[in-house]
Design goal:
With 327 residues, this protein is α/β, with parallel strands linked by helices. It contains eleven helices and eleven strands. Bound molecules: 6-O-phosphono-beta-D-fructofuranose.
Length: 327
């Protein structure tokens, strides 16, 4: 494609993640560096449908590298799931002369991008941004490192009060279908048990673990629960456990959306910067309908159809390690 005539649109969609701004900055500045026009599309796909476009330049993205959230705002657009909505979005792309699209988001975002490419042939490039870290085709999703550090900080604080009161805490973290946050933060905070969507842990197993540790002298404990776990959320699991075992006074803490905010970590800023540059460069090389990712420290492009239909799974050996170390 003639780069003089190229105009790239960039949007963020789905759940926001710390580091999305760093990715936007990288996309915009790489476009300017390569003499390509770049259009910010606000409110995700909804803004594409409603025509919320604005030309960006290198100064539009000044001082956003260290800011959480997304300056482009985000949405989970129901209208984009309809053919009619996508047709409107396409008309707006044409109206603004945008002929390639970079979408920063997660699985739902890339499902939309893939369908949009198939219907209208506009080159699309996904950049993985999701605190859930569940996208296939990358070792790391933007936002995951920051969110996990936020959880570690919160759980360390909960640990203080749990210890003071000899209590058992069930702490629920985000991860609709994914246990990455729970697993990493569980190891990093010494949780007695980690309940993941990807792993079957029965209530009886959990009770046995708690009983054993109490008998070995533990006076307080923390169980980390991913919100999407098969046995339910933290409240449900706490209830089921206390029905069978009530040795400890029990409390539940749901960390919620605080996990999605805050200044991105160094790691997320660097990953986002690298992926943003590679997203633009990939489009210039003629890549389309793919997601940029970083695997073994190398930029890698994976077809969107694979990225959305396969899952990045947590390392099961880390679960084993967590079990050994929590005795
Ligand atoms: O996909 C990221 C995520 O934070 C999930 O972990 C969580 O289940 C979901 O988004 C929450 O979405 P919302 O902010 O729309 O309630």
């Amino acid at each position: 494609m003639n780069t003089q005539k190229m105009k790239i649109g960039v949007l963020t969609s789905g759940g926001d993640a710390p580091g999305m701004n760093a990715a936007i900055r990288a996309v915009v500045r790489t476009c300017v560096y390569r003499n390509i026009e770049v259009e910010g599309i606000f409110q995700g796909y909804q803004g594409m449908i409603e025509g919320d476009f604005k030309k960006l330049n290198e100064r539009s993205v000044a001082r956003i590298l260290g800011r959480g959230g997304t300056i482009l705002k985000s949405s989970r657009s129901k209208d984009f799931m309809t053919k009619e909505g996508r047709q409107k979005a396409y008309e707006n792309m044409k109206k603004h002369g945008v002929n390639a699209l970079i979408t920063i988001g997660g699985n739902g975002t890339f499902t939309g991008a893939h369908v949009f490419f198939e219907e209208f042939g506009i080159p699309v490039m996904g950049v993985p941004g999701s605190i859930d870290n569940d996208l296939f085709g990358t070792d790391h999703c933007i936002g995951f490192d920051t969110a996990t550090n936020t959880v570690v900080d919160a759980v360390d604080k909960i640990r203080d009060t749990a210890t003071s009161h000899n209590r058992l805490f069930f702490v629920e973290v985000m991860g609709r279908n994914s246990g990455f946050i729970a697993l990493k933060a569980g190891i990093a905070t010494g949780a007695i048990a980690i309940v993941l969507p990807e792993d079957e842990m029965s209530i009886d197993d959990l009770v046995a673990t708690l009983r054993e540790s109490e008998e070995s002298g533990k006076s307080s404990s923390i169980v980390l629960v991913a919100e999407g776990s098969k046995s339910g959320g933290a409240y449900e699991i706490a209830k089921k456990v206390t029905e069978k075992y009530s040795e400890y006074e029990t409390r539940v803490s749901v960390l919620g959306h605080l996990q999605r905010g805050g200044a991105p970590s160094c790691y997320d800023r660097v990953m986002a910067s690298r992926m943003g540059v590679a997203a633009v460069e990939g489009i210039l090389e003629g890549r389309k309908d793919v997601m940029i990712g970083i695997i073994n420290d190398r930029e890698t492009y994976t077809p969107l159809s694979e990225a959305i239909n396969q899952r990045h799974m947590p390392n099961r050996d880390e679960l084993r390690i967590a079990r050994i170390l929590s005795i």
